[in-house]
Amino acid sequence: MTFYCHCSLCRRSGGAPFVAAAAFKPENVTFHGESNIRDFIPPNSKVPRRFCKKCGSYVAEDARPVLGVFALPLGLCQEAPDKKYMPAQHIFWDSRVLSPDDSLPKYMQMPGSQRAD
Fold first, then answer.
1. Residue at 41 is within a domain
2. Does residue 29 lie in a domain region?
3. What are 65-117's pLDDT values in tens digits?
4. Contact 114, 107 (CB under 8 A)
């Protein structure tokens, strides 16, 4: 699953009006330098956000407790990500602070919930 997330927790974690991310099954994710990563669970959340202890970068959302995946922000890529990782939908559209003008599907919550468009 690839997406732009507009929820307030992702906005605060990523420091942007929305976060572009790709979700991966845990067995497909390896964190190098695990000792340099710290988890933080925001208030009113069930999922930890992972940050680098050295530079403070937002590394991942550990969504295993609710979705069984890690969501990795595409902003971490040093080069343009492969097209297969480009966001295919907007989620938590009802929480947006900006309204990007594109033709991607927009969901009020998670995919499978009520569409906003």
1. yes
2. yes
3. 888 999 999 998 889 989 999 999 999 999 999 999 999 999 998 776 566 66
4. yes
Q: Are 89 and 3 in contact (CB under 8 A)?
A: yes
- Give domain status of residue 80, yes or no: yes
Q: Which residues form the domain of 6?
A: 2-95
β-pairing, 2-5 vs 90-91, is parallel
Could you tell me if residue 107 is inside a domain? no
Q: Distances in Å between the alpha carbon of 30 and those of 66, 81, 83, 113?
A: 20, 18, 21, 30
- pLDDT at 53 (0 to 100): 95
Q: Read off the amino acid at residue 63.
A: A
Task: Compute the distance between CA of residue 88 and CA of residue 31 in angstroms, rounded to an integer.
Answer: 25
CATH of the domain at 32: 2.170.150.70
Gap between the Cα atoms of 117 and 105, Å rounded: 7
DSSP 9: H
Domains held by the chain: number: 1
Neighbours of 63 (CB within 10 A): 18
